């Protein structure tokens, strides 16, 4: 009796997002998930380093290592994939990167720079979020986006700080809800 096996083919689509000055947290989230799903994240986090380029053959001649060739091919595929998700400004930051790890690091330095001025600006942005004419969902999404931007530069806020920010940005028509929530926080 002949045995049969089923081969499942999965089509993989690169995330449809282009990194620019405004969306690093979203880009990072989607690309990390994609790369992890493809078992390629090790190339960007540096945990799959480049093996030696040359090895000595049996007769003592230096030849290109098969491990190096395989690594280089895979690494450059990751570079190519990342490149397809970059805006012209982001591409300028990546130009000259010799590996996926170096490219990832350069992009992080540019778009998630944790300098003090950037952190202060991000905190100010969060503190200035007001509900205004937005519906509650849009208002909360704006606060989440500001919180996520802070998280990408290593500033993490606890839930109580976020609740205080949400309450502070609500207009007077929410006074009763604000009072109840403030009492629950004390």
Total domains: 2
Unreliable runs: none
Mean pLDDT: 89
Order of helices and strands: HHEEHHHHHHH
End-to-end distance: 74 Å
Contiguous helical run count? 9
Counting copies of identical and different chains, the oligomeric state is single chain
| Strand line-up of the largest beta sheet | 1-2
Helix content: 55-70%
Q: How many whole angstroms does the radius of gyration measure?
A: 24 Å
Pfam family, one: Retrotran_gag_2
Organism: Rubus argutus
Protein name: Retrotransposon Copia-like N-terminal domain-containing protein
Question: Which keywords apply here?
Answer:
2 strands; two-stranded antiparallel ribbon; mainly alpha; 186 residues; 3% strand; elongated
Model description:
By secondary structure, the chain is mainly alpha-helical. The protein folds into two domains: 24-111, no CATH class; 116-185, no CATH class. It has nine helices and two strands; from the N terminus they run ααββααααααα. The protein has helices at residues 24-37, 41-45, 66-83, 88-94, 100-111, 116-127, 136-152, 159-168, 175-185, and strands spanning 54-56, 62-64. A two-stranded antiparallel ribbon has the order 1-2. The longest helix is centred in the middle third of the chain and has 18 residues, at 66-83. The protein starts with 23 loop residues before the first helix and ends with a helix.
């Amino acid at each position: 009796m002949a045995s049969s096996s089923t081969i499942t083919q999965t089509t993989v689509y690169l995330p449809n997002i282009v990194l620019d000055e405004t969306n690093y947290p979203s880009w990072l989230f989607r690309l990390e998930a994609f790369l992890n799903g493809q078992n390629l994240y090790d190339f960007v986090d540096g945990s799959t380093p480049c093996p030696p380029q040359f090895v000595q053959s049996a007769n003592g001649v230096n030849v290109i290592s098969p491990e190096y060739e395989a690594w280089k091919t895979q690494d450059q595929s990751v570079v190519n994939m990342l490149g397809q998700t970059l805006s012209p400004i982001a591409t300028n930051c990546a130009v000259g990167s010799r590996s996926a790890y170096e490219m990832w690091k350069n992009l992080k330095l540019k778009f998630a720079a944790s300098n003090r001025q950037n952190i202060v600006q991000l905190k100010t942005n969060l503190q200035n979020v007001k509900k205004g004419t937005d519906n509650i969902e849009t208002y909360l999404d704006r606060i989440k986006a500001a919180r996520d931007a802070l998280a990408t530069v290593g500033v993490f806020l606890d839930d109580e700080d976020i609740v205080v920010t949400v309450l502070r940005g609500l207009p007077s028509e929410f006074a009763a809800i604000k009072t109840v929530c403030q009492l629950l926080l004390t």
